[in-house]
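TEACHING EXERCISE
Course module: macromolecular assemblies
Task: Read the component lines below, then compare them to the predicted structure of the full complex.
Student: A.B.
Group: 4
Components provided:
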Amino acid sequence: MTYSFRFDPVELPPEAKELRQEVRAFLRQEIEAGTFSPYGGKGSFSREFSRKVAAKGWIGMTWPKKYGGHERSHLERYVVTEEMLAARAPTRAHSTADRQSGPVILRYGQEEVKEKILPQIARGELCFCIGLSEPNSGSDVFAASTRATKTDGGWLVNGRKIWTSNAHQSDYMIALLRTSPPTKENRRHGLTQFLVEMKTPGITTRPIINLTGSHDFNEVIFDDAFLPDSHLIGEVDMAWKQATDELAYERSGPDRWIETFPALVELVRRAGEEPSERLAEGIGREVAHLATLRRMSLSVAGMLQAGKTPMVEAAVVKDLGTNFEQALPDKVRLLAPQTGDSTPDSNDDRFEEALRYATLIAPKLTIQGGTREVLRGIIARGLGLR
Amino acid sequence: MNDSSDSIIVDTATRIFRDLCDPNTVNEAENGVWPKALWDVLAESGLPLTWVPEELGGAGAALADGFAVLRLAGHFAAPVPLAETLIAGWLLSRAGITVPPGPLTIAPVHVDGHITVTSDGGLAGHARKVPFARNASHIAVLVNRGAEAAVALVAATGLPISQSTSLAGEPRDDVMFDHVFPERVEPAAIDQDRLVGFGAAVRLQQMAGALERILEQSVQYALDRSQFGRPIGKFQAVQHNLATLAGEVAAASAAAGAAVEACALPDIAISEIAIAKVRGGEAAGTGAAIAHQVHGAMGFTYEHSLHHSTRRLWSWREEFGNESVWAARLGRMVAARGADELWPFITQAS
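Instructor-supplied answer key:
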């Protein structure tokens, strides 16, 4: 048996390279027009921007044309995603739907829902959130207890989801709900995925302010909320079988290593053209990590393109990537040339802002979308240790 | 292994190492016993001359093939100058010099190497820590002849050598070239910088192979060794260490692959080599430490073969530029281009 995971190199096709230039030109234009600032903090939420991206054909890129998609490759999608993230473009209104929710609906949703929802996502009109965590089930996703009970023509939902990013701005949620108790043989049995329209009566969204002072998290309360039968996604009680490929999509993308990248960019700016040996070495080390991570992440996109489900490889990329992006702000902090009262520096504000943002968000990076501990468990299973 | 490599070459190399590169051979080599059986079979197979075109006496195979063989050599901790002979063959061929039989090595192996051709046609200068110099029949020396870089083929017999060893106990000898007359001197197609970059790519392949080996050994050991009533691999702390090791192995492997691609370019992409040697070097350190932690005291014994790989990792990460050297260079490249060019720089390779 071989225990090493393979990350074969991926050569981007010419069309992806052309596309990169196209995306860069678009982003430059948007920045010049004042739509967003690449030096701002969080890549924020703008439905207007999402509609513009959609008009370019850059949402639902890999989906069939009959559902509003563009039948382009995962590698082309990858290029668009990384360019948007590197520029801090405000993609929050469409990124979750494009990355995760859309593909799940495409794969497991009912035809009626696919025909209705997917074209809307591809037009940049729908924002999605993911209803996984609950007060008593965080990392232990399959312990979810928010219940969907069969009723005439649909399901009645009762319970609470928590730490739901963006729920307050979302049109839909894909929720993991309890439809049966777990069995002795399989503790993951009994959960089902549903499409939830957020304005359904009986759903209340409450803000939870995070330590940066921002409203991103929410608590979502379900009180006899009714979901039509058509909103059932996949097989009843069998969500555990469907979750795997969703995670492969979620865990390997550029968003898993690029979050604190602006701090490195601003460090390079502050370093100037002729940095000290110490600073040059520090920058070089981080760039080496970043470039290697990107190579591995792109390799996973190549696996997805080849129709594989690289669950473990995606976990490897996310573990390495989030550890890197989390450690980066502290490296930047200590490498930065110190400034004082007598050192005027026009880039100071930009540097300070990038570092402040990166430092504050760092703790969440190894928690969201699967904690470091969960990921290492998945990798250990891949090694045959579990 | 790389898909593009010829599976016959890889199969041949695997068979040879499996048959003739057992732990005892590796230990004996450290004690100064030349692994004749292993080298002779390798030489007979033509593997050491993988990168030499047929008209210059070699096998004329692709770069990827040689790198795939080097990964295996690293995996098996082969205590022979296979990597060095491959590099020498590559260097000599680029200068159009027919490659002599026998184990070869190269000099200098440092960026600041400086050996010159004097007016009488002899050489001047010395090279430090030349791998396997004492075992080599010839040395391919990159020299300065006036303003041009040239490759000199030097017979190694009788050269003044000061013997030393690497952390892995492999020969690393200082060689004096003063008043030595080379058999041939021809213009080189590359400079010292590119030679060191190529050497770094070679070491990265060996390191990737060695890291794969210690991951295999560590997982197997964790499954076999029981403490507190169960295999230690069932403990979460050990599992997480092994998961980290697997990540480092994967990163080193990806980095090594990038370095191979960089070498296939006409001018050798030095920035890609820098990225790869920094990341691969870090992985070697982190990976070796975890492998030892998992193996406990057993892995710290001479009897256990873990040190065949870990000591080589510690040695190889230092050669052809360590992490600091390459990181500083990479940092200067990035700084010279400026902050707004960082992202285009990261994405330029693909």
